Amino acid sequence: xxxxxxxxxxxxxxxxxxxxxxxxxxxxxxxxxxxxxxxxxxxxxxxxxxxxxxxxxxxxxxxxxxxxxxxxxxxxxxxxxxxxxxxxxxxxxxxxxxxxxxxxxxxxxxxxxxxxxxxxxxxxxxxxxxxxxxxxxxxxxxxxxxxxxxxxxxxxxxxxxxxxxxxxxxxxxxxxxxxxxxxxxxxxxxxxxxxxxxxxxxxxxxxxxxxxxxxxxxxxxxxxxxxxxxxxxxxxxxxxxxxxxxxxxxxxxxxxxxxxxxxxxxxxxxxxxxxxxxxxxxxxxxxxxxxxxxxxxxxxxxxxxxxxxxxxxxxxxxxxxxxxxxxxxxxxxxxxxxxxxxxxxxxxxxxxxxxxxxxxxxxxxxxxxxxxxxxxxxxxxxxxxxxxxxxxxxxxxxxxxxxxxxxxxxxxxxxxxxxxxxxxxxxxxxxxxxxxxxxxxxxxxxxxxxxxxxxxxxxxxxxxxxxxxxxxxxxx
Length: 476
Hints:
The protein has 476 residues and is an alpha+beta fold. It has helices spanning 25-28, 63-68, 70-80, 85-117, 123-159, 195-201, 207-214, 224-242, 256-261, 287-292, 349-366, 413-418, 445-451, 463-469, and strands spanning 3-5, 12-14, 49-51, 178-183, 205-206, 220-221, 246-248, 253-254, 273-275, 280-282, 297-299, 306-315, 334-344, 371-375, 387-395, 400-409, 420-423, 429-431, 433-440, 459-460, 473-474. The protein has 2 domains: 3-159, Helix Hairpins, CATH 1.10.287; 178-474, BirA Bifunctional Protein, domain 2, CATH 3.30.930.10.
C-alpha cells in the first residue's frame, strides 16, 4: 500500500527564466514525461517553480500516441460526434510548443557560451559580447514568454479533447447503445403502482416535505424507506469488502483542480454545485475524491488492482433536466451512493472493467430485480470514459428499463491529469488506469418497490434485505 509523493509539493508549475536550465529529453517531449523517483513531471521547463497545494494538469491525451496515430484520435472524436479538427489544433499546438522550447534552449545555450567567452575576450571583442549579451537577455525573456504561451495553448487544446474511446465501443449518440443481455423475469402486473404511490402509502418517501424544506427534486426517506436504503447500502458495502475493497467515507467538497482533473468541469460544469466563497465544489459522485486520493503520488505496489468503495452524499444540479423525471426519486439533487473505484495497470483495465460490471450485476441479482446491461454509445460517454456499461432495472409503471448503475473505464485519462503513476518493472513510473462503478443508490428503491409490489398494495422485501429492514413484507 506504499506510495511516493512526487516532490515536496505537487503544484501548478510556472516558468521561471532565472532558474531555467537545460530541459531533459523526457520533459522536452511531453509524450515521455519524467519518471525519476520523487520528481514531479513539469510539462515545460526544468527549474520551474510550484505553487503549493495546486495540481498541475498533465497531458490528457498521450502525445506520443497522438503523433504516431492521429487518425485513431480523429476516429474517436468522430465516434463521439465531436469535431476531429480539434486533433489538428492539438497537433499544431504540440509543434508550436516544441519549437518554442527549442528556440529558448538555443538562446540559453548561446547565453551560457557568451558567459564562458567573456573572461577570455579582448577589449573590442568584450564590447561586442557585452552588446550581444544585452540583446540576448531580451531575446531569452521573449522566448521564455513564448514557451509559457505555447504551453497554455497546448493545455487548452488537450483539455478540449475527451478520452480516446476503447476499441469496440459503439459509435453514435444516446440512443445508439447496444443491449448485451437481459436478466431476470419481469413481473406480470395488471395495473402497477409507481414507486411514489407505493412509497407514500408505506410512509417511506415524502416528496412534499422535501420540497417544503429544500425545493423541487428533494425528498425525505422515512421509516421503512430509510431502512431500505441503509439495508441496501450495508449489503453493498459487505459485498465490496468481500471482494477486497477498502471502505471509504470521503469528503464531499473538493478543490477545483481535483474536479477538473477527473473531467467534471468541462461540458459538465453546469451540473456541479460550487461554493464560491471557499472555491470548493460539491461532488456529484465519490469517484471525484477517490480519484484525487492518490493525486501526485507514485503507487509503489500495484501487482493487484487497488480498490476503494466510497460511501458519500452526492449533489447534482440537473441543469439540463428541466421537465424530466419530475415525479419521485429517480432524478434528484441530493442522494447517497456507494461507488467502487479501482486503480490498476493499464493492461489490466479491460478485465477490471468487466469485474466491476459483474459485481454490479451480482448485487442486482441479490435483490431480485430484472435488469439489462447496455454498452453505452461513444456520444453518450462522459469526457473521461473510454467505455461505459450501464445496468438498467425494469420499472413496471414506466414499462421500460431505467439506469441504476454505470461503470466506466477511464484508462489513464484521469491519472495523467492528476499525476497518479505506478512503479513499473525496472524502476520507471507510468500513469495508472482508473475505473469506477456504481454499486448502490436510492434509485434502486424504485425498482425494488415496483417489482416486488403485491395486488393489496404491500411490497415483498427481497430476502437479502430482510435482516436489515426487520420484516419480509412492507404493508400500508
